[in-house]
From TrEMBL:
The chain crosses the membrane at residues 578-602, 622-647, 654-675. It comes from the Eukaryota. Residues 354-367 have a biased composition (Basic and acidic residues). Pfam families: Ank_2, PGG. The lineage of its organism: Eukaryota, Viridiplantae, Streptophyta, Embryophyta, Tracheophyta. One of its GO terms (cellular component) is membrane. Keywords: Membrane, Transmembrane, Transmembrane helix. Residues 343-353 have a biased composition (Polar residues). Residues 327-367 are annotated as: Disordered. This is PGG domain-containing protein. Residues 535-645 form the PGG domain.
Length: 714
């Protein structure tokens, strides 16, 4: 059909939200109804679904049904069509520039009432109409709308959605443009309730792949924000998150099965089935749950938290269902054969130390390791040929490990324990991936798998990298949790030490294919972070030492300027006031604290700063300096407040309270601005002390009077 003239008046009315004006236009100009109103060739019915209301579309459908129309045919001539059925069919199947019918647009926009009106119309097979991408309205509903619309479509028109076996019709399963499945479409839209509904209805959907060979589980494993671990929350938000319930049970599958059984009986008895609706009129009123009960307004932040939790809960349920149905882990054991992957046995290498004087022994260990790899693994040329011929998509287990979705990792390993032994084409295990991408929770979980851990910690990949070498891969670090370059570098050093304790001691000096040890790789890749951390330490120390010097100057001068003055004997006039005692003590403490802080920061400025110093020495000095500086600021303001209260003898409690608040306002601002950094320092120091205590407890505890008792309790 050629192009039709665009009618702009109703479009302007719709853009301004004046739907009554648009309807008035069409009641007076019936011939304009079939004409497009936008450059995308949308008709009035397409626009009506954007109102999020039922009435505009309902009124337009009444106009279509009740009146006689002139409908343009393919030859652009005007054909008179009389009746109440044919016009409605013609208009409801009319498509815009993208091939979308009105029902397509209603599902995309999530207009439930419009979907209900269109499905209940006299237009048959409306659910089977496809757009230019090969998408049916059920397909678009899965990717854009809520689960209630998908559920309504299946319940209302089961004969247009499922076959005699209860599976989705092939027209709904994939779109023709890129073979994207309806299940993957729901995952991309993060409509996991819809995805779970579809999977429960047709469990064969989990096997479908797109043109790149990506399955639903592989796609889900790339979405860390779909799970609770990818949604950081504060204390208040976490408390509310835990209290909000999410409960939803789908009955679509059982209802479809009942409908199929009744249909089968009717066919066997020779009777037609009049009713094809499974009953779907009440499920919308059941939605809202506790939010509706609490009368939470739409758009409230509480609704946002509830929607997040709902998404996380259904994503977890959906992932569990996919993992239980997935059989690909049974054949993934050969994935590691595409690359070189080596596990060195203790009998095949000699014991080596990390000392520089044993470099000859290190070379011997490395040469033996390379000989073993050349025997066990294909040559580089063979490996290259294989990789060029066979392109395999990354396993969901490796993707989830890399993205930090520990729930998927845990469920896969618990359901398929042997999957933990798989390796990727570089010969790396999931423990290597967890170390590379700094996924500490997954790392801790894998450490609990004692038997597989004994093998995974001894893996050498196709480039000769051990588990410790992967710590040096700074570019893949996605697990930074601390502010400031110095604390981030400290976190890297702690991670290196933690991994070093895990691997066998004779693996520490191994060289990779580039001839570098893990320590050398780490130092090489962390040159820039080291420079940034050194610069940050210098700038922070200079700033803090300046503040400490200013505080010391102020409190030193205040010590000789007694508030209220002195008498002729040099005795302070307000020496008997309790506020004077507060002033004296706080002034002395502030002076001592500021001078101590100044000395600490000056030592940081004058001392050499090397890489290893960021592990324990520098954080310890910084926490001492920050503690004394923070304490000196607090006591300085306390001294200032006491001075004000001494000079202004007010009997009004309100005045005293306001003066106290004003005095401590700078302390509050300072605390808020530096709290996160201070807590990070405290956390680092606590971890260091905890490690030191564990290391020396065996020798220290027995010497204490209660040592034997503690050892017995352990």
């Amino acid at each position: 059909m050629g192009s039709l003239p665009i009618i702009g008046i109703p479009y302007r009315a719709a853009m301004s939200g004046n739907w009554k004006s648009m309807l008035h236009h069409y009641r007076e100009r019936v011939l304009h109804v079939p004409f497009p109103v936008t450059l995308s060739e949308d008709t009035a019915l397409h626009l009506a679904v954007y109102s999020k209301q039922e009435q505009p579309l309902k009124d337009l459908l009444e106009i279509v049904n009740d009146m006689e129309f002139l409908v343009p045919n393919e030859t652009e001539s005007l054909v008179t069509v009389t009746g109440s059925i044919l016009p409605e069919i013609e208009f409801l199947k009319r498509k815009n520039k993208f091939g979308n019918t009105v029902l397509h647009e209603a599902t995309i926009y999530g207009n439930y009432e419009a979907v209900r009106l269109l499905v209940d119309s006299n237009c048959e097979d409306l659910l089977k109409e496809t757009n230019n991408y090969g998408e049916t309205p059920l397909f678009t509903a899965a990717g854009f709308a809520e689960a209630e619309i998908v559920e309504f479509l299946i319940r209302s028109k089961p004969q247009q959605c499922v076959d005699d076996n209860g599976h989705l019709l092939s027209i709904h399963i994939k779109r023709t443009k890129d073979d994207l499945s309806i299940l993957s479409n729901a995952i991309r839209g993060q409509h996991f309730e819809t995805a779970l509904l579809l999977l429960e209805l047709d469990d064969s959907l989990h096997k479908l792949k797109d043109k790149d060979g990506v399955t639903a589980l592989q796609l889900l494993a790339q979405m860390p924000t779909a799970f609770e671990s990818g949604f950081p929350m504060g204390i208040c938000g976490r408390l509310i998150y835990c209290c909000l319930p999410v409960k939803r049970h789908h009955e679509v599958k059982s209802q479809v099965e009942t409908w199929l059984e009744e249909r089968k009986r009717d066919l066997e008895s020779g009777q037609g089935r009049n009713s094809e609706d499974l009953g779907s009129g009440s499920e919308r009123n059941q939605r809202g749950g506790i939010l509706k009960y609490l009368k939470v307004p739409k758009g409230c932040w509480l609704e946002g938290i509830w929607k997040k939790k709902k998404k996380h809960v259904f994503a977890l349920r959906f992932a569990k269902s996919l993992i239980e149905k997935d059989e690909s882990f049974e054949s993934e054991g050969e994935e590691g054969q595409e690359g070189k992957q080596t596990v060195l046995l203790s009998s095949q290498i000699t014991t080596g130390d990390q000392n520089k004087e044993e470099e000859g022994q290190t070379s011997k260990i490395t040469s033996e390791a390379k000989e073993i790899k050349n025997v066990q693994c294909p040559t580089a040329q063979t490996s290259l040929i294989k990789s060029s011929l066979t392109i395999k998509v990354e396993s969901p287990l490796f993707t989830a490990t890399r993205r930090g979705i520990e729930k998927i990792v845990e469920m896969i390993i618990k359901k398929h324990p042997h999957a933990i032994e798989n390796h990727n084409k570089e010969g790396q295990s999931i423990l290597d991936m967890a170390v590379m991408y700094r996924q500490k929770k997954i790392f801790d979980f894998l450490k609990q798998q004692k038997i597989p851990l004994a093998r995974m910690r001894r893996v050498v990949d196709s480039k000769g990298n051990t588990l410790l070498h992967h710590v040096a891969e700074k570019g893949k670090n996605s697990g930074v949790t601390k502010p400031g370059p110095a604390l981030q570098l400290q976190e890297e050093l702690q991670w290196f030490e933690q991994v070093q304790k895990l691997i066998p001691s004779n693996y520490v000096p191994l060289l990779n294919d580039e001839g570098m040890t893990a320590r050398e790789c780490f130092e090489n890749t962390h040159k820039e972070p080291l420079k940034e951390a050194q610069r940050w330490i210098k700038e922070t120390s200079q700033s803090c030492s300046t503040v400490a010097a200013l505080v010391a100057t102020v409190v030193f001068a205040a010590a000789y300027t007694v508030p209220g003055g002195s008498d002729e004997n040099g005795k302070p006039n307000f020496i008997n006031s309790p506020y004077f005692l507060i002033f004296t003590v706080s002034d002395v403490v502030s002076l001592a604290s500021s001078l101590t802080s100044l000395v600490v920061f000056l030592s940081l400025l004058t001392s050499p700063i090397e890489l290893q110093d960021f592990h324990i020495s520098l954080p310890r000095k910084l926490i001492v300096g920050f503690t004394f500086l923070f304490f000196s600021v607090i006591t300085t303001m306390l001294s200032f407040g006491a001075t004000i209260l001494i000079l202004i003898q007010s009997e009004r409690k309100l005045t005293t309270l306001l003066l106290s608040i004003a005095s401590f306002l700078p302390v509050l601002v300072f605390g808020i601005m530096q709290f996160r950094l201070y807590v990070s320092f405290m956390g680092s120091t606590y971890n260091i002390l905890k490690i030191a205590w564990k290391a020396h407890s065996s020798s220290l505890v027995p010497c204490l009077p209660w040592g034997k008792k503690l050892r017995r309790e352990d």
